[in-house]
Amino acid sequence: MNAKLTAAAAILVVAIVGLAAFEGSTNSWWSDQENATLEINTGYLKLDIDDYSLTIDDVPIDCDVSVSEANESTMIITLRDSTIFLEPGNVVKLSYAVEYDATISGARTVEAYVMDSVSNTELNDPHISMIYVEKIGDKDVSEDWYFFEKGTHNTVAEVTFDIGGEADLKMDHAYSFCINTGFVQSKALFTQVDSAEDLVDALTSTENRFIALSGDVTLSNGLSLGQDSDVVLDLHGHDLVFESVSGITVNGGKLSLVDDADGSGTILTVDDGIVVVNGGYFEMAGGNLKSSTGTGIVAGYSNQDDSGANVYISGGSVTAQEHAVWAVNGSKVVITGGEFTAIDNVAVTANGNQGEGPVDVTITGGTFNCGIVTSDYLACGVFVAQDGNWKILGGTFNMTSDKATAFVVRGGNVNIDLSKVTVNMGSDMDSSSLRVGDSTRVQSGHIVAAYYTNGSYGFDGSNASLTIDDIVVIDEDDLSTYVGSTIYYYDN
Fold it and tell me: The whole model's pTM is what?
């Protein structure tokens, strides 16, 4: 590192990620009744940072973290070496882990900038660029507003400041790199609606990004969100009922579903609940989906050339007559929490037709209730019915039928960690051979069953593997053994 000053100063890094409290207050905006009030809950949000590191031009810098005496919501990361200076052309990178511990649901936004500590003003220099990235697992939460349910949430953040060579740094000035995290109880952000007309108007307006139900709403037709849509929908303890077969189609846009009330709000549909296509994004952190005849969440069009979908589920529940979650055509599904119930099919699956993959599915948490009604079929938690990457690394799978196999593998690269996955089989489990997906019969009562069919389920004779508890049990050399009627079974 070049410690010679050209137009530079000592660095102080300030990360404002400490404590925040939601103040209790009384407001009238939530009700359509004159003089009516709504009490906004008093809650508390605590943040901690850990595993912090600082580099300048990829060189690690020793630093210490402390809480500001003037403001406990400010945590200060200071350089131990006061002889290190900042120059135009430097790249400063700050990485840290964040733990959010909230007693109520809320939303946060992040602003990062450089301060001139001498003049106490933000440094608005076009030659200084900033990139902020925050993730929960592999999910990017760097967006303007991130909504979280009450409880504990762990994220990892990285902030990069690129100080361009033409940046106007002053001699004898100290500069602070500031990360401001703002918090608000999420209901305070939302436009309230209590009718079908108001809901449609709000969804089609670019001014209403945050929409909350203030009463039950019934629609005669489905809703569609286009490419420019970016909507957070708070059910707020109310029901959204679709009388037609369709629910909400996210056609290239973005929809986030939450419930900032008691969590009882439900989207009720006849057929598919949420359909996400053409690269659309759907996030579910709360609320409930119920489909009386179809699938809860559909990711990607079947038999069409689209760019798939992105689905992230961390809370709420999905109940469907068929599948809770179904994906095709390059779709990505990440499940970290929530409850999923398949009444008469498979909880999480894909389409098995050739050419409808790949799909990318990761499950690290959640509860999956897996039932079957149709005779001659097995209940199943995850049916790997397409090529791609399938990671089952957590979650609880309850086989609610006495005819069930938890995981059936027909293709893809599959990784199952049974040390972190719980499978509850019924004590009276039937051992009969029944079907999952096609006419091939699978013996009931096993944790895993794997077999392959050339030209189906995305399998072409070589593009599949099965890993259980970090041990490869089926690789390319073994595949031919399980093509056809020979089935690989695994039990704890």
Answer: 0.79
Size (the chain), residues = 492
Q: Which residue has the higher pLDDT, 429 or 19?
A: 429
What tokens were used for 437?
A: 């997906």
Per-residue buried b or exposed e for 149-165, using 16+ beta carbons within 10 Å of the residue's own CB: bbeebebbbebbbebee
Rounded Cα distance between 475 and 473, Å, is: 7
Label residue 402 exposed, middle or buried (CB < 10 Å: 0-12, 13-18, 19+). middle
Tokens 């498979």 locate to 346
Q: Does residue 14 sit in helix, strand or coil?
A: strand
163: Cβ–Cβ under 8 A, 6 or more apart, which residues?
Answer: 86, 87, 88, 89, 90, 91, 92, 127, 128, 169
Which one, of 20, 196, 23, lies nearest residue 98 by Cα? 20
Average pLDDT (426-447) is: 89
Residue 130 has pLDDT above 60, yes or no: yes
Q: Report the distance separating Cα 94 and Cα 79, nearest Å.
A: 12
- Residue 72 has a pLDDT of 64
Residue 127 is which amino acid? H
Give the per-residue pLDDT at 2. Answer: 38
- pLDDT tens profile 84-100: 777 888 898 988 888 88
- 298 forms beta bridges with 275, 326
Phi-psi region of 292 (alpha: psi -120 to 50; beta: other; left: phi over 0): alpha
